[in-house]
Amino acid sequence: MKFGFFLVMSLFLTACSTVQPWERGHLAKDTMQGDAYPKKAALDRHIYFSKEGASGGGRAAGGGCGCN
Amino acid sequence: MAVTKPVSALQALTASALSITGMASTHAATQPEDTKLGVRFTQYKESDVTSDRVLIGSQERYTIDVLQLSFQTPIFSEYALNTYVAYETMSGASAYRSYLNNSDQTVIEMSGASGGIEEQRLDASIGLSRYSKYTETTSTLAVSQEKDYQSIAFSYDYAIENKKRWLALLSSFSVSYDTLNPTDADLFTDRAVATDETKTSVSAYGGFNRVINKFSTLQMGIGANVLNGYLSDPYRVQDQRPDSRIQTTFTTQYRKYSPLIGGSWHFDYRYYQDDWQVQAHTFDTSVWKEFSTGGVEWILAPSLRYYWQHEAEFYNLEQDPTANEFYSNDFRLSAYGAVTLGIDVFMYIRDVKISVGVSQYQSDESWGQTGQQDTETPTLVDFTTFSIGLDVTF
User: Cβ contact (<8 Å) for A57 and B142?
Assistant: First the structure.
């Protein structure tokens, strides 16, 4: 528990390394984003929401559907 | 060219704000420069139920066709409009009851004895984002319409970066209001009538996204969702669940670009628990390999997902459950595990992206790591998806 707390705080408070804007080409790629292909991610989320007991996670949950 | 097109450092920092679940579109801290239009068709098909366990109804489970449309465009100097529409047509049958018979064997009663279920669903959302030097705010209105279910939801997202742009704080809040009008209630004497029942949800998320180095980013966050109202399954007989549910999650996303493989590695993890005693772990990993042939750029993206959950405290397969006690035989509340294997291929020709994908989902009660797995759950679902899509940037 303490280890997790200090890990998170260290991530907040310290810069691991200075990354200049011109060094961020790889970070800017579509394939480096949270959802590299948003339409696929949206449908996958909807399918798992309707077929599994767990749901939610990133950002707020939104509305439901008759599937669940 | 979408594969290698450089975008701003701001976008690199916070564009991974979307995580495992959520309903809004891509989060980026800089205003999009281009207008994008996309269409995608997916066929989802569930495997048939084991025939020797079906007492009543059809063995054939759902087949669903999904058409998705998306449109994103910048407006004025600091706004962007995001619209999304999905139209689903579904047919097939679903289990309305499963229980242990006198021989301790699980049997299933399925719908579909008189032709199965035919249903359509329209899901639409519209979001407006505003961008300033270090912040982005997005307001989204979403509706979902079926003949027996309506939902309206509103969400608000806010993100702010530090001045050196290696840290973004993320927050999100949403509310929804759903109305149920289940059909064919008169066909079953022991099914609860849920006409005009409602349920509400209020959810919040807080987290951060930070740049680790020029090749990797990490996002972590916690979320909570409070559901109130009619939470039983109105199409199941003898299904009686609590009228509130508090869900909490912890999520993390890691993204790493590897020059060695010429692509990106994704790793996502989610821990979930609720006050129905369901706990779940989700591990999701994929590799996005980029390459070029004959002037055409490609991405090959194999993926693997592993999911397992504990059962809910009131999950039960008794044939005659005790009256006035919470009870459900819904497989989604049982203990099990599931594996998804998938692969997507993307081809980029100038400003056009063509995508094809396939995935296979298999679940089994023995693949869970905890909880009761000694009772078989023949209603667990296996399914296949096949998708094809086209996206154009103007």
Answer: no
